[in-house]
């Protein structure tokens, strides 16, 4: 494995709200596992990545900046191996993710995709929405205000206008789903999968877990959840992933968020070797295809 040279690109701090240390920790842990397996891993930040012409053919990254994603996509089209794919990272932006998941039958909340200067009150009523979530549709969440819980259509209209005044042009409105909130982490093609109740564990980025509150322990199929997440991983083209889902009283599980390479904060030690194995497996397949 000594001949494997990898460029590792860390996530810019602006895209690690309340998780800068955790994001850096999982990235460094994976890099160390790759080095132990004989790989040379050269680490860059997003600014360096955007400015430099990297010599490495393999790029392992946590990028989120639009310029970085565009460059990753160009490098992929030129034949380099990129994990997670720049196209996959873009697929995890809210509106694109919503269209893909709903369009391919992966369980997800009923949703409206709108311009932020639209009047939506009547549309929400007609769709049977009462409480709902408004999320910026154009990109990844960077601030607490990029994800908003609304108790009724009138409040949703006010919040949508606030998004417009902040310069956000598109938003996704999800129907609120009552039930147990679960956070999950996974690695495509690997046996690793971890889930927990974030509110019960005090794990939070913006404090919004309090809306669903303490988990009731509603029963659900763990194998069904794993299978659904693997389908979403394949569809969205992200091998290293995490997200959130809601368990309904009847055991139905719906994904409400799916992210490219999250922090794996509660399971970093367990996850890191499997992420490294996923990367090495992808390198092997990529080399065979060349």
Describe this protein's structure.
The protein is an alpha/beta fold and 290 residues long. The protein contains ten helices and twelve strands. The protein has helices at residues 20-36, 46-51, 66-77, 86-91, 94-103, 121-126, 153-165, 198-201, 222-236, 268-289; strands spanning 5-9, 40-44, 58-61, 81-83, 111-115, 132-136, 147-150, 170-175, 180-187, 193-196, 240-247, 253-260. The strands form three sheets. Strands 2-1-3-4 form a four-stranded parallel beta sheet, with helices on both faces. The model has no long low-confidence stretch (mean pLDDT 92).
Biggest sheet character: 4 strands, parallel
What global shape is seen?
A: globular
CATH topology of the largest domain: Rossmann fold
**What value does the Rg take, in angstroms?**
19 Å
The secondary structure category is alpha/beta
What is the H-and-E element order?
A: EHEHEHEHHEHEEHEEEHHEEH
- Tell me the strand order in the biggest sheet: 2-1-3-4
**What is the top-level CATH class of the largest domain?**
Alpha Beta
CATH architecture of the largest domain: 3-Layer(aba) Sandwich
Q: Which whole number gives the mean pLDDT?
A: 92
**Number of DSSP E strands:** 12
> Could you tell me how far the N terminus lies from the C terminus, measured between alpha carbons in angstroms?
17 Å
Estimate the strand proportion: 15-25%
The number of distinct structural domains comes to 3
Regions with pLDDT < 50 over 5+ consecutive residues? none
